[in-house]
Amino acid sequence: MNYLLFRKSLEQFPVFSSKDIKKRFSDFDNRRLVEWQEKGYIIKLRRGYYSFEDVEKGEIFRYYSANKLYSPSYISMESALSYYNLIPEGVFTTVSLSTRNTTSFSTPIGSFSYRNVKAPLFFGYRLLNIHGHIIKMAEPEKSVLDYLYLNKIDTPDMLEGIRLNESQLHELLDFDKLHQYARVFHSKKLQQRIQLLKKMIHA
Questions:
Q1: For residue 85, how many other CB atoms are within 10 A of its CB?
Q2: Are 150 and 81 in contact (CB under 8 A)?
Q3: Structural domains in the chain, sorted by start
Q4: Is 27 within 8 Å of 61 (Cβ atoms)?
């Protein structure tokens, strides 16, 4: 297998899988992957997933990779809150929700964490087109609800500890949508946490 032909065939994929390769080259010899890793042409992200070494690997690439490496999933929780500037800190682990089992793993490009949610709660994400990469990212309202639902935030002090950006919350959150989404969770605890949030930001 000629590497340049391989590279051209898969260049539109920031992350590609063994299945992607087999779709294009049915008789592909996997020993080439080991050889090209040793030569520094490609890097192995996790079992069965690879990227070309020369692809820019910043934050957007990690979001795209998170969707690809464990599917179905979408970016949420701290990662989405950070993306929307709803919390002040950068997030070193890319956090997603998935209908698959809760898991986490480290890769050469960063750490990834996935929290399990039931299928009815796998909604409320948008498809972002960033530099030609399609990324599943929770909407601001859903990222807040996911975080409140999956974390024990039952007092004003706990909520203050998140250091939410109140002015950004006012600007971004549609509270009608937030309440509409919250009803899908069927959770009294979540409703109580939403009331704490509204008191904090005087919404």
A1: 13
A2: no
A3: 10-52 (no CATH), 59-201 (3.30.460)
A4: no
**What's the order of all strands across the beta sheet hosting 125-130?**
103-107, 110-116, 93-98, 73-75, 133-138, 125-130
| Distance in Å from the first CA to the final CA of the chain | 61
Instruction: Encode pLDDT of 8-20 as tens digits.
Output: 999 989 999 999 9
Question: Residue 88 has what pLDDT?
Answer: 85
The pair of three-digit structure tokens given for residue 46, joined into one six-digit string? 């996790």
What does pTM read for this prediction? 0.92
- pLDDT 10s digits, 48-64: 999 999 998 899 999 99
- Cβ atoms of residues 28 and 21 within 8 Å: yes
Measured distance CA(128)–CA(147) in Å, rounded = 20
Quick one: which of 112, 122, 34 has its CA closest to 74? 122
User: Nearest Cα to 99, choosing from 127, 80, 75, 72?
Assistant: 72
